[in-house]
Specification:
One of its GO terms (biological process) is tRNA modification. This is tRNA-(MS[2]IO[6]A)-hydroxylase (MiaE). One of its GO terms (molecular function) is tRNA 2-(methylsulfanyl)-N(6)-isopentenyladenosine(37) hydroxylase activity. By secondary structure, this protein is mostly helical. It has a single domain, classed as Ferritin (Up-down Bundle), CATH 1.20.1260.10. Helix content is 70%, strand content 0%. Helix 4 packs antiparallel against helix 7, helix 5 packs antiparallel against helix 8 and helix 6 packs across helix 8. The longest helix is centred in the last third of the chain and has 29 residues.
C-alpha cells in the first residue's frame, strides 16, 4: 500500500508494531471514534496555524485546503460510525501528539518550523497506520481508508515543504530529533488503545 509513497516510508522511523495492528482489530469501535477525533484535531491544527501566521501566504493556502479535507474526512468517519451503530463520544487523547509537541521551541520561526515538522509526522504516521490496517478491516472501512492514503500523504508533503520553505536553512537535524521522539512514542507500550498509541502494555 505504501510503495507509492517511498518518501513517506523513509521519513518515518519505523513500521507500526504488529501488536498494535492486532490491538486495533480488537478495538474497531475505538479505532473509529478516535479516528474521528484525529480528523477534527487535524482541522483545528490547520485553522490555528492560519490564525497565528496570517502573513504566510503559502501556509494560508495549504492549511485552508487541508482543514476542509480533514473536516470532510471527519464527516465520512461519522457516517461509517452511524452505519455501524457506533456512538461518537469523548476520548482522552493519546500521549502521541503531546509527546511530540512538548519539544516545540518557543521562539520564532523555530516554533513554526517545529509545529510543521510535527504535522508532517502526524500525517505520515496516520497514512502508514491506515495502510497496515486496510488488508484486515471490513470492506466498508477498508475502502474508506484506502481512499485516505493519497490525501494523508499529500498533507505530509505539505507540512514538510512548508517547514523547509520557512526555515531558510536545512531542517535535517530537527527532523531527525523528532524522528527519534516519534520512534519512542510508537514503540513504547500504552495502556489505552488509540490511533497513534504504542503497542498494548503487557498484562
Amino acid at each position: 500500500m505504501l510503495t507509492d509513497y517511498p518518501e513517506l516510508v523513509e521519513f518515518l522511523p519505523c513500521e507500526s508494531p504488529k501488536e498494535w495492528v492486532q490491538w486495533a482489530l480488537e478495538n474497531e469501535e475505538l479505532l473509529l471514534i478516535d479516528h474521528a477525533h484525529c480528523e477534527k484535531k487535524a482541522a483545528s491544527t490547520a485553522m490555528n496555524l492560519m490564525y497565528r501566521y496570517v502573513d504566510r501566504e503559502n501556509l494560508l493556502h495549504k492549511m485552508s485546503q487541508l482543514a476542509r479535507e480533514e473536516l470532510l474526512h471527519f464527516e465520512q468517519v461519522l457516517k461509517i460510525m452511524k452505519n455501524r451503530d457506533v456512538e461518537y463520544r469523548h476520548l482522552e487523547a493519546s500521549r502521541y501528539a503531546s509527546g511530540l509537541r512538548k519539544h516545540i521551541r518557543t521562539h520564532e520561526p523555530a516554533k513554526l518550523i517545529d509545529t510543521l515538522i510535527i504535522g508532517a509526522f502526524v500525517e505520515a504516521r496516520s497514512c502508514e497506520r491506515f495502510a497496515v490496517l486496510i488488508p484486515h478491516l471490513a470492506p466498508e472501512i477498508s475502502k474508506f481508508y484506502k481512499s485516505l492514503l493519497k490525501s494523508e500523504a499529500r498533507h505530509f508533503e505539505d507540512y514538510l515543504s512548508l517547514a523547509e520553505e520557512y526555515a531558510g536553512e536545512p531542517i535535517d537535524e530537527r527532523v531527525q530529533f523528532f524522528r527519534e521522539v516519534e520512534h519512542q512514542l510508537i514503540t513504547e507500550p500504552d495502556v489505552e488503545f488509540r490511533v497513534h498509541s504504542g503497542p498494548p502494555q503487557a498484562a
